[in-house]
Amino acid sequence: MELKADVAVVGAGAAGLSLALRLARPPSGAAELDTVLLAAPPGPARAAPRTWCFWEPAGGPYDEALAASWQRLRVHGRDGTAVTSAIAPLRYKMLRSDAFEELAGRRIAASGRVSRVEAAAERVTPTPGGSLVHARRADGGSVAVRARWVFDSRPLTRLPPARTTLLQHFRGWFVRTPRPVFDPSAVELMDFRTPQPARGLSFGYVLPVGPREALVEYTEFSRRVLGPAAYDRALRHYAQRVLGLAEYEITACEQGVIPMTDAGFVRRPAPGVFRIGACSGATRPSTGYTFSAVQRQAGAVASALHAGRHPLPPPPHSARARLMDAVLLHALDSGRVDGPAFFTRLFGRVPAPRLLRFLDGRTSLSEDLSIGAHAPVAAMLASALTLPFAPRRNLPAGAFPPPDTGAVHHAASA
Predict the structure, then answer these.
(1) Which domain holds residue 102?
(2) 40 near 46, Cβ under 8 Å?
(3) Residue 53 and which of 286, 296, 369, 412 are 20 to 30 A apart at CA?
């Protein structure tokens, strides 16, 4: 079976669905594009359910599907000192992947401009005037999509070589308590009252969706992931010793790994074939957040296609942001910067809305410099001077697990 289209979107995660949504709703006067969305059928090729978090003003395009949103963020230092910040006019938003898929599916189906095909893409081969995407259905039947433009959002099985790669790896429990114990007005964004690893950092993360329900996670930034038992020990310690949860029921669990790397990602692996989402570098190296960059990228690609321009996806993050992230990663990995103290100091001294815009790469140079004044200048300068001499290396075999083994709560991406 062979289908023909102007555009083929490979993968129905955050990046693929976000692009398909924009192509399903062309602006007035724009040429209509025949689009095929290839979504992996249930099975090993489909990613596990996951949670994405991001910040934007109220009234966003996906607000009706949100699990919750908040206007206050809290950071706990290692000594227990709490910094709580209002982030208006922004809101910190929690979006579950199944709710996003259901919303996107309704909108795409109603448009009549995008055809969804449940098949797992296996390879993409160039052809005259475009490319051919070879895919396989759940029943074993083959499908081919011939398209002028192909946008591939499938996760990479191996990361590009980098000077520094830390893994943001985490395990989270959705918990329910018999009595009200959570503050549903604020997110516990980074709680450093956790045992810190010898290299890197760790923190707790709490997303309360009500006074008796929350997503409670343990997160590490380090070079290697942990075993399941180690995550559960860390979560029990955080839930019981730090949060003081005497009784709770675990209703669901999610786990994932997000690479935080200064690697260079290829956005056009072949003529007419483009990578989008996390596999194109949309994950912010210093934080692991991905969803907002995916939205910017999808908007830019759709605008180019609708205007008849070449649709090479723009770099998800500016050159200045990537350089700052590379220096910070190098400083954290080398141990020059104390991660918990660094992030606690930033949230304590920089107005939260400005800091969030900084983390999203939306600040001016003068704002970046003002925020940088609160960083450990000597340590960051030493890292900046030694960074150019650090060799780019591949991660050791097995250091980065297969990308479909868990859920991504910061974005991932996708």
Answers:
(1) 2-51+95-159+262-306
(2) yes
(3) 369
Question: Which pLDDT tens digits describe the chain residue by residue (414 residues)?
Answer: 889 999 999 999 999 999 999 999 998 888 789 999 999 998 877 888 899 999 999 999 999 999 999 999 999 999 999 999 999 999 999 999 999 999 999 999 999 889 999 999 999 999 998 999 999 999 999 999 999 999 999 999 889 999 999 999 999 999 999 999 999 999 999 999 999 998 899 999 999 999 999 999 999 999 999 999 999 999 999 999 999 999 999 999 999 999 999 999 999 999 999 999 999 999 999 999 999 999 999 999 999 999 999 999 999 999 999 999 999 999 999 999 999 999 999 999 999 999 999 999 889 999 999 999 999 999 999 999 999 999 999 887 666 665 443 343 333 333
DSSP secondary structure letters along 123-154: EEEEETTEEEEEEE-TTS-EEEEEEEEEEE-P
Mark which of 252, 281, 306 sits at the end of a domain: 306
CATH number for position 134 = 3.50.50.60
Grouping H, G, I as helix, E, B as strand and the rest as coil, residue 178 is: coil
**Residue owning tokens 């114990």:** 181
pTM of the model: 0.92
Number of domains making up the chain: 2
Within a domain: 350 = yes
